[in-house]
Amino acid sequence: MAANWKMNKTVAETQAFLNEFIPVVRDVKDVEIVIAPPFTSLHTASAILKNTDIKLSAQDVFYEDKGAFTGEVSPAMLSDIGCKYVIIGHSERRQYFKETDEIVNRKIKASLKHNLNVIFCIGESLQEREAGKTFEVLNRELTEGLKDVPAEGWVAAYEPIWAIGTGRTATPEQAQEAHKYIREKLSSLYGMAAQEIRILYGGSVTPDNIESLMRCNDVDGTLVGGASLKVDSFAKIVKYKK
Ligand code: 13P
Q: Going by CA atoms, what residue is nearest to atom 9 of ligand 1?
């Protein structure tokens, strides 16, 4: 279960969240918990999470190791401060910052080289879904994004853009249909290893819909935006089985 805080929370707010959240989920053993605060909170969060099983993630990364790239952060820098994961190819980055499949692919390869696990995001817009192009978009994003990428070190996250921040969650049937397609595509790329690749669902996940989404065969976890900003709701999502 991964929390994507997006551009939310100051350092003080990050500290307050984590200090309250850690004891609440201490008894959770069978769920991998990942939290992705903004860059400015990573260092502080890393220190607080040090003796816990909760993994730290960044929300983006650049593909070069170092150099004259003003404003960017490298995979080595993220590893250095204790990040175990990085989110790559989020639809907001593709949409607002013009990230292409090729850039996403370069970022994935650079991150794996530095032992950062990748949360690789894909998903169609409402317009694409209504035009019957969902599978075509997923196929392109997977084919291009995963060029020369091995089967290990990353998870996929299916986030239909029309479900992000809208309160309009994909139904379990819609989620399963897309996840099944993704699994089949991964099988064609990686053979049997595709069964081990986790596929997360993201888009208006809440404590109310988590159970029905997690019941889908090919939904292995979730990437949560809005509902991850409050301790109570993210803890309920993490503990959905109880
Ligand atoms: P919401 O949960 O706010 O819809 O955001 C989903 C998302 O984009 C997570 O990466």
A: 225
